């Protein structure tokens, strides 16, 4: 069937005229296929009888002017509501109007959503007999005339038929061959081929029914051509004889259309296949681009051969019988009389292909009758087609590859399902339809989606009637949906993973439909269309194989006829391989995955698809089960109690399957993939290792680059099963290759110091446990403190799984000497007291005394620890001065604002080796700052008030906002989504490598964490929550590349629970109530309205200028972390798009060569570059290791700009220092992490938090913030890039004493100003660069100007 469409747009008068005129009889007549004289195509003079079978429905009216939904609730002929007379504006509303208002508020929840749905249907609708399709309708009549006027071809043999087609096609200038399926008829086979012009030609599918919709690939118009019955014999359903004759008939149709000049001027005529089945060739007519009224429609006309019901004995085509004899497959002999048919393998797909040809008109009639019963049925079917169309991978581009997608699970199947729900479905045990004919289109669509979300067609098969042999269907098909004739399974050929994916997408769509968010229309109908498979799945594999070797009998033992027959059942060799891989992986990894989808590419033409004697690319998408995918031990069955399952488990895993006894006494088979010390990054790679292991063991496919570890390779190559279906020999490098990007991209979260070899030695759990231990130890000091310690609030990213790498412990015995020591910030909350002073300075001194007392008591109780007093804003560990960009000296210049006394203490934890920086929370301080700011405002001192308000804001950020944010991110990473940690870290690495992570200029760390959290808490478009860092990172890039920050609210909903679901628990987190209403936990409606209101107010007051802005339920005004500047947001969008292109390119070519470009920023866009001395960059060991750029290299630092450190100088080995020789370097890389210490460049051991680069950048920003923007990689980058402010630099101004800038005289051409007699001056760029070099003396290596 065609891919669907909508009703025609009409005026009210035309709609009333359509109601009054009699219904056309074309569709009912089409089902009288036995009447051979019935040509169901109108003549040229009959303009309305050909294409109007389904276009005269009542639902056509709604396109002209919006009708109230209640008016469509009854059957056709419902009277229109009377219009109010003029002069009576206060007339009472009609019942229909009241019903529509109630429907909008209760059902649709929003009038905007109703308008959006109506507009969607009107924009995508394609209806017959309308002005846009007038040229198309005329072309269809031409096609009909050509088809019915073709001359007869006398019967001939196979050789004669092939020669005849070749000769006739050559005469038309386009050589064609008969599209015989595989296996083609043998030479001398006793079969005759003939042709007679069709007498029944009809248009079926969505176009005449008013359901056709435009999609990204256009829409189809199906023209059924009924082949005369005298061309066939009664037993032609055996051994492909029907399909051979059908192929010859299609070839004659194609030649006839190609030879007709009028048709060839309008269309490109070529062969195609129906549902990618080589047994069902068709003629495809694509309008030429320059043809008026056709090229713009994007339609495709498909000529579908069909047969009448009495041509072949259709009742005999049952799914449990065999219609292709094995002797015919092996010896090309007829074999029709083979005995013992019951012992032969069934051919259900073969018989379903014949039945689908014979029942085209029957299904058309059934849908037409359903339209008569329910006027809203076409509109609901159109919505279903639009919804399923955005998920279809057909026509989607992934680089240079076009995906084939699912050809069998299409709009026709969903339309038939909707008809079944209307006419035949039973709810529970009671009789009656599940949906009502009085429902409107949205209700029907919603009911169908919710049914798809919970129904398993394998477990609960469905049928229209009651006479079908459901046992036979169930034994020979996986999923069963029997048509109204009780003979055809509409889900024939649909693979198990396709239905599982549809069910997953329907579950998420059902939640989105019932969501109260303003963007739920985009969630349901638009979001998925913008997502390609690179971001859809947790793991994406590119499988490049040679199909000829897989299907050929030259490798291993001779293929048996039964095995060959099983391959031919799928109708295409690509489909056979696709089903084999998908079913094998799904069965082997059933516990670890929720879905394994195998997408073939659509670059196999019809002729090549028959023999498939070339390579083909498949893309395998895996949706992981979060609870199982990271397990180190995969538990199998017990060999004694489950012998069959144990045998299957051993067959899958070979020597990997070990018999183990567990602590509970159970003895089970198991596969072990690591030890308990394995890091989360390596655990995320367990599932790719499993896939690579299975494909290498059973299909001889090699992973390039290799994702398996050494022990995996040893086991998998040691013994391979005898029945392996290999794509070639194990030693053949071209047999098959597997590429996985998710394992490679995780390496970019490593550092030089903590790379792949040492990631298992530290963990975030160790840091969190150390913090909890510190909290217990400090609470034990209550008797020694004036106030009781209530709680310790962690605020450091390292304590919420969000720092680039886990906090590195330092051995106290070794002195703790390291290049950079990251303190873990903690806020200490004491019990309430009313004795705090009212003076800020005095309060700070008391806070310092409290902290010193706390440190003394702690060191007395724990002798191995040490405590040091530090200042938050000054000294070598200062960092919080970057929070607002304001100078700490400026903040302390006002009365009672002495922040030099706002101190903290650093506690070196003896047990863990970590350093905790403790500050004190005092609510009284916040109250004093707020009161002081108000007094300054009343006193008319706005400058003082702004300074104090900034201090209050900074106090709230440090002591209130950060602890709340920390708890939210910790809960997200620790309880709900383990992949959120790696996603956040990859995003931070990406931002820092592009020099856009920072507090002053760029994206603050907290904002980056919120952006990464959004992809886990606000999934839409059929996407489940990411289960891997790769999927989360790619979706973050897509979000940054596509989000309209100035138009759409970006909010993170931390109140939404995880919506992961298993097959046993249909709960996504959604509950299906008895009324069929799906609800999901999340942000309350009131909270959502507050966010929308705050966003609208900010937009109204001009505060939104396109900058990155993130709101939460606790921060509706997005005031906690500020808004990223619009110019930086635009650069983020540009870099994200370029990074996505690199990711797609890697998947496209099957190589990670371009992956480093994702984390490499271009420097040619900056005005000047400051290069720092590498030896004074304390955080240089946080740079990318060489193993991330080049996996075969060791863990060496990767440079910022052009990776120049990767180029090792050619030098004699004996001239190298001893510790730098390659042999010694390897030994150093293998040392334990605690032994890897780096001398501080300033030879001052124990300098906690000392980052001279950050302090230098802070000083530059405080001095030059108005004239430039500075960017640097906060994770050890040795480059600072700058952009001049064009409004300050290069613009002459009149000289004044308060310019506060280094200026020089302007050129003579600009020396005088028309409005002032004062001399004109300009910003002295050269002098400022010299000042910056002088400020960075000892740190700056060089400054280069790129653009003047």
Helix/strand layout:
Elements: H1 12-20, H2 26-30, H3 95-108, H4 111-124, H5 134-148, E1 153-156, H6 158-171, E2 193-195, E3 200-204, H7 206-209, E4 219-226, H8 241-259, H9 261-266, E5 267-274, E6 277-287, E7 299-306, H10 326-331, H11 348-358, H12 360-373, H13 377-391, E8 397-398, E9 401-402, H14 411-423, H15 441-454, E10 462-463, H16 470-476, E11 481-482, H17 496-513, H18 520-525, H19 533-536, E12 539-546, H20 547-551, H21 561-568, H22 573-588, E13 593-600, H23 606-611, E14 615-624, H24 626-629, E15 633-635, H25 643-653, E16 658-661, E17 667-672, H26 680-684, H27 686-699, E18 702-703, H28 710-718, E19 736-740, H29 742-745, H30 764-779, E20 789-794, E21 824-830, H31 840-861, E22 866-871, H32 888-891, E23 903-908, E24 915-921, H33 923-938, H34 942-976, H35 979-993, H36 1005-1017, H37 1029-1042, E25 1051-1052, E26 1071-1072, E27 1078-1079, H38 1085-1100, E28 1111-1112, H39 1126-1149, H40 1155-1158, E29 1168-1172, H41 1186-1189, H42 1222-1229, H43 1252-1264, E30 1268-1272, E31 1279-1284, E32 1293-1294, E33 1303-1305, E34 1320-1323, H44 1325-1335, E35 1340-1345
Parallel strand pairs: 4-7, 10-11, 18-19, 21-24, 25-28
Antiparallel strand pairs: 1-2, 3-4, 5-6, 6-7, 8-9, 12-14, 12-19, 13-14, 15-17, 16-17, 20-21, 22-23, 23-24, 26-27, 29-31, 29-35, 30-31, 32-34, 33-34
Helix pairs in contact: 6-8, 13-14, 13-15, 15-17, 27-28, 33-34, 34-36, 35-36, 35-37, 36-37, 37-39
């Amino acid at each position: 069937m065609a891919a669907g469409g909508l009703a025609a747009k009409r005026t009210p008068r035309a709609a009333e005229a359509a109601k009054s005129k009699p219904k056309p009889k074309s569709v009912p007549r089409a089902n009288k296929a036995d009447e051979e004289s019935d040509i169901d195509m109108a003549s040229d003079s009959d303009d309305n009888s050909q294409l109007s079978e389904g276009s005269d429905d009542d639902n056509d009216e709604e396109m002209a002017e919006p009708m109230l939904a209640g008016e469509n609730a009854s059957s056709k002929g419902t009277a229109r509501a009377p219009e109010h007379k003029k002069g009576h504006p206060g007339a009472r509303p009609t019942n229909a109007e009241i019903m529509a208002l109630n429907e909008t508020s209760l059902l649709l929840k929003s009038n905007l959503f109703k308008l959006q749905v109506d507009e969607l249907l009107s924009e995508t609708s394609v209806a017959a007999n309308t002005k846009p399709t007038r040229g198309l309708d005329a072309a269809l009549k031409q096609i009909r005339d050509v088809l019915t006027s073709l001359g007869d071809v006398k019967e001939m043999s196979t050789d004669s038929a092939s020669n005849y087609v070749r000769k006739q096609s050559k005469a038309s200038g386009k050589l064609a061959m008969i599209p015989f399926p595989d296996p083609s008829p043998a030479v001398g086979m006793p079969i005759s081929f003939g042709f007679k012009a069709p007498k029944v030609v009809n248009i079926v599918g969505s176009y005449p029914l008013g359901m056709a919709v435009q999609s990204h690939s256009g829409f189809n118009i199906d023209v059924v051509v009924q082949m005369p019955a005298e061309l066939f014999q009664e037993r032609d359903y055996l051994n492909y004889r029907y399909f051979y004759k059908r192929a010859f008939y299609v070839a004659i149709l194609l030649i006839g259309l190609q030879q007709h000049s009028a048709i060839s001027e309008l269309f490109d005529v070529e062969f195609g296949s129906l549902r990618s089945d080589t047994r069902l060739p068709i003629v495809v007519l694509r309008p030429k681009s320059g043809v008026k009224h056709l090229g713009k429609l994007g339609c495709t006309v498909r000529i579908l051969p069909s047969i009448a019901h009495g041509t072949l004995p259709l009742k005999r085509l049952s799914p449990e019988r065999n219609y292709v004899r094995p002797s015919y497959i092996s010896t090309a002999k007829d074999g029709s009389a083979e005995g013992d048919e019951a012992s032969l393998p069934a051919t259900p797909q073969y018989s379903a292909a014949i039945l689908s040809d014979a029942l085209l008109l029957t299904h058309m009639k059934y849908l037409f009758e359903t339209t008569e019963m329910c006027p809203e049925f076409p509109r609901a079917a159109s919505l279903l087609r639009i919804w399923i169309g955005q998920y279809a991978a057909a026509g989607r581009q992934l680089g240079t590859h076009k995906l084939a997608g699912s050809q069998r699970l299409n709009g026709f199947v969903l339309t038939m399902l909707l008809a079944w729900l209307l006419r035949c479905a039973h709810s529970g045990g009671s009789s009656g339809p599940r949906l009502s004919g009085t429902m409107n289109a949205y209700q029907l669509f919603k009911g169908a989606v919710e049914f798809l979300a919970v129904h398993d067609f394998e477990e609960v098969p469905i049928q229209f009637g009651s006479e079908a042999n459901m046992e036979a269907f169930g034994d020979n098909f996986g999923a069963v949906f029997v048509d109204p004739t009780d003979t055809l399974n509409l889900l024939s050929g649909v693979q198990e993973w396709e239905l599982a994916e549809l069910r997953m997408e329907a579950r998420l769509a059902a939640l989105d439909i019932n969501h109260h968010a303003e963007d739920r229309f985009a969630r349901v109908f638009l979001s998925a269309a913008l997502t390609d498979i690179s971001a859809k799945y947790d793991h994406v594999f590119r499988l490049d194989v040679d199909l000829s070797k897989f299907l050929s009998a030259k490798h291993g033992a001779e293929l048996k006829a039964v095995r060959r027959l099983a391959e031919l059942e799928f109708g295409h060799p690509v489909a056979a391989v696709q089903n084999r891989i998908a079913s094998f992986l799904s069965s082997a990894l059933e516990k670890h995955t929720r879905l394994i989808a195998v997408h073939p590419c659509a670059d196999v033409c019809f002729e090549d698809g028959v023999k498939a004697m070339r390579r083909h690319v498949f893309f395998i998408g895996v949706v992981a089960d979060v609870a199982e995918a990271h397990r180190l031990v995969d538990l199998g069955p017990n060999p004694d109690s489950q012998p069959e399952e144990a045998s299957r488990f051993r067959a899958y895993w070979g020597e990997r399957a070990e018999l183990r006894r567990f602590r509970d006494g159970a003895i089970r088979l198991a596969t072990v993939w690591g030890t308990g010390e394995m890091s989360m990054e390596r655990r995320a790679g367990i599932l790719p290792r499993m896939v690579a292991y299975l494909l290498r063991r059973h299909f001889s496919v090699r992973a390039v680059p290799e994702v398996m570890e050494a022990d995996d390779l040893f086991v998998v190559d040691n013994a391979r099963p005898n029945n392996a279906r290999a794509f070639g020999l194990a030693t053949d490098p071209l047999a098959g290759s597997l590429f996985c990007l998710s394992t490679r991209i995780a390496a970019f979260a490593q550092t030089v110091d903590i790379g792949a070899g040492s990631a298992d030695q530290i963990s975030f759990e160790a840091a969190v446990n150390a913090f909890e231990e510190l909290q217990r130890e400090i609470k034990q000091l209550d008797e020694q403190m004036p106030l009781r310690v209530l709680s310790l609030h962690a605020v450091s990213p390292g304590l919420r799984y969000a720092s680039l790498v886990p906090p590195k412990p330092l051995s106290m015995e070794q002195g703790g000497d390291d290049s950079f020591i990251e303190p873990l910030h903690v806020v200490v909350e004491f019990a309430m007291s009313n004795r705090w002073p009212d003076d800020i300075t005095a309060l700070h001194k008391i806070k310092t005394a409290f902290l010193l007392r706390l440190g003394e008591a702690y060191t007395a109780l724990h002798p191995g620890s040490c405590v040091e007093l530090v200042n938050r804003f000054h000294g070598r560990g200062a960092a919080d001065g970057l929070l607002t960009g304001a100078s700490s000296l400026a903040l302390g210049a006002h009365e009672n604002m002495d922040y030099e006394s706002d101190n903290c203490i650093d506690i070196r934890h003896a047990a863990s080796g970590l350093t905790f920086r403790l500050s004190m929370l005092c609510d009284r301080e916040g109250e004093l700052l707020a009161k002081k700011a108000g007094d300054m405002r009343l006193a008319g001192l706005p400058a003082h008030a702004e300074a104090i308000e900034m201090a209050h804001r900074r106090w709230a950020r440090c002591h209130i906002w950060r602890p709340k944010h920390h708890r939210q991110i910790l809960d997200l990473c620790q309880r709900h989504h383990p992949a959120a940690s790696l996603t956040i870290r990859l995003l931070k690495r990406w931002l820092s490598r592009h020099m856009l992570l920072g507090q002053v200029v760029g994206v603050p760390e907290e904002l980056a964490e919120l952006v990464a959290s959004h992809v886990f808490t606000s999934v839409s478009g059929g996407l489940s929550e990411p289960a891997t860092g790769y999927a989360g990172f790619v979706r973050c890039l897509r979000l940054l590349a596509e989000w309209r920050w100035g138009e759409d609210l970006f909010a993170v909903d931390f109140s939404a629970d995880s919506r992961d679901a298993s097959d046993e628990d249909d709960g996504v987190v959604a509950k299906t109530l008895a009324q069929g209403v799906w609800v999901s936990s999340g942000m309350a409606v009131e909270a959502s309205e507050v966010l929308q209101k705050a966003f609208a107010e900010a937009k109204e007051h001009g505060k939104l200028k396109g900058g990155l802005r993130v709101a939460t339920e606790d921060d509706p005004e997005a005031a906690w972390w500020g808004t990223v500047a619009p110019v930086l947001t635009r650069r983020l969008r540009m870099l994200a798009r370029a990074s996505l292109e690199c990711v797609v390119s890697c998947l496209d070519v099957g190589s990670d060569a371009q992956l480093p470009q994702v984390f490499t920023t271009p420097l040619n866009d900056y005005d000047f570059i400051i290069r720092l001395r590498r030896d004074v960059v304390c955080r240089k060991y946080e740079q990318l290791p060489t193993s991330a750029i080049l996996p075969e290299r060791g863990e060496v630092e990767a440079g910022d700009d052009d990776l120049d450190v990767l180029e090792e100088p050619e030098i004699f080995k004996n001239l190298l220092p001893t510790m730098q020789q390659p042999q010694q370097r390897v030994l150093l890389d293998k040392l334990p992490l605690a032994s890897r210490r780096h001398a501080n460049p300033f030879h001052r051991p124990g300098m906690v938090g000392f980052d001279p680069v950050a302090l230098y950048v802070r000083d530059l920003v405080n001095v030059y913030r108005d004239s430039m923007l500075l960017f640097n990689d906060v994770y050890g980058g040795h480059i600072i890039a700058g952009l001049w402010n064009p409004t300050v630099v290069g613009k002459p101004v009149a000289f004044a004493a308060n310019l506060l800038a280094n200026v020089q005289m302007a050129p003579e051409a600009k020396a005088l100003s028309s409005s002032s007699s004062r001399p004109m001056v300009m910003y002295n760029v050269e002098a400022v660069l010299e000042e910056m070099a002088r400020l960075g003396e000892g740190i700056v290596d060089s400054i280069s100007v790129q653009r003047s």
